[in-house]
């Protein structure tokens, strides 16, 4: 249940896209805090952009433990309403009682902990390692404890991808004197911090498996998967010349079409005509094509510690997964809720 600061009951596509929902032929999971959202029959989306695993409120106050608290309130309210109104029509839009134990809780969180500390809070690498990461791990372990006490049995965590290769980091930090870069031009110290976070996550999950036997707690190696795409982009349909460049952005601040003063969607920004060839969408987030490939790997158990092949287990069919597909275009008669 969590992602760039995210938590989801059951599945949704990584980073606010639709791939897993498409794979399971479910409607897109509605956000818990969205006005007008009401259909939680297939799960709920507790994601909140820019949030962190640690108690960092520099960009968004809804950090991980607050998202978990929202889930607990949601479960209590939904269960109460289903029990109170035996014939209430609204019941059809609430999760089944067994969903909390049978659902898959997905988490993609941690990247903002590192980048917020460096880009927004001017913390040192040493402070990230000794303060930020331990705080994040403490909250992740607390999250698993709370969710298992609420019946959760299946967890899928995504570690952090190599943000030193992200468009925003390579642009904003490029002017630092003596900045060390690797053979791909990625910023070494940012990638080292991501690796430190991922090592701590491995240790934390190892502890959780001992504390909560009988639960399936998996880790998708987002760092390795991202590196595979950056190393061999043409194998997955990406243009090798475009792996670091933002599809949607603006010039004037470096060479990668990312300008922190004119971000994607604002006046003066531009959008590429071939986003399926790009890895990066807006300098910060990946493209649909990238997330689609990540979802295919994650659902089949590739790049995963303690893997579960949900593609086989749930008989998922990806043949209709056109790279630019939407839920309605793939399953035009099955979406239950449409917002206008």
Automatic annotation (TrEMBL):
UniProt cross-references to InterPro entries, sorted A to Z: GDSL, SGNH_hydro_sf
A Gene Ontology molecular function term of the record: hydrolase activity, acting on ester bonds
Top-level taxon of the source organism: Eukaryota
Chain segments annotated as coiled-coil in the UniProt record: none
Recorded family membership: Belongs to the 'GDSL' lipolytic enzyme family.
Protein name: SGNH hydrolase-type esterase domain-containing protein
Organism: Marchantia polymorpha
């Amino acid at each position: 249940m969590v992602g760039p600061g995210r938590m989801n009951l059951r599945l949704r596509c990584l980073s606010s896209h639709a791939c897993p929902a498409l794979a399971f032929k479910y409607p897109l999971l509605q956000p818990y805090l969205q006005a007008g959202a009401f259909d939680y029959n297939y799960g709920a989306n507790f994601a909140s952009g820019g949030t962190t695993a640690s108690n960092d409120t520099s960009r968004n106050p809804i950090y991980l433990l607050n998202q978990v608290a929202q889930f607990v309130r949601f479960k209590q309210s939904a269960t109460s309403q289903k029990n109170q109104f035996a014939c209430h029509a609204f019941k059809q839009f609430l999760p089944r009682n067994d969903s909390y134990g049978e659902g898959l809780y997905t988490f993609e969180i941690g990247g903002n902990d590192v980048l917020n500390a460096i880009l927004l809070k001017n913390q040192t690498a040493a402070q990230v390692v000794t303060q930020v990461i331990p705080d994040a791990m403490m909250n992740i372990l607390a999250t698993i404890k709370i969710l298992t006490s609420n019946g959760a049995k299946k967890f899928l965590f995504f570690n952090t991808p190599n943000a030193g290769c992200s468009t925003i980091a390579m642009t904003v930090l490029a002017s630092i004197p003596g900045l060390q870069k690797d053979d791909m031009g990625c910023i070494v110290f940012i990638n080292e911090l991501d690796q430190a976070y991922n090592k701590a996550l491995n240790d934390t999950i190892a502890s959780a498996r001992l504390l909560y036997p009988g639960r399936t707690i998996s880790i998708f190696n987002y760092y390795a998967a991202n590196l595979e795409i950056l190393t061999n982009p043409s194998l997955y349909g990406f243009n090798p010349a475009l792996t670091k460049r933002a599809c949607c952005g603006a010039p004037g601040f470096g060479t990668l079409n990312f300008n922190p003063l004119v971000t994607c969607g604002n006046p003066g920004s531009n959008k590429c005509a071939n986003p399926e060839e790009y890895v990066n969408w807006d300098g910060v987030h990946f493209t649909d094509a990238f997330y689609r490939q990540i979802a295919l790997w994650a659902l089949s158990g590739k790049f995963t510690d303690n893997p579960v092949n949900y593609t086989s287990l749930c008989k998922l069919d990806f043949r209709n997964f056109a790279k630019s597909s939407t839920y309605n275009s793939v399953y035009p008669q099955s979406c239950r809720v449409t917002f206008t």
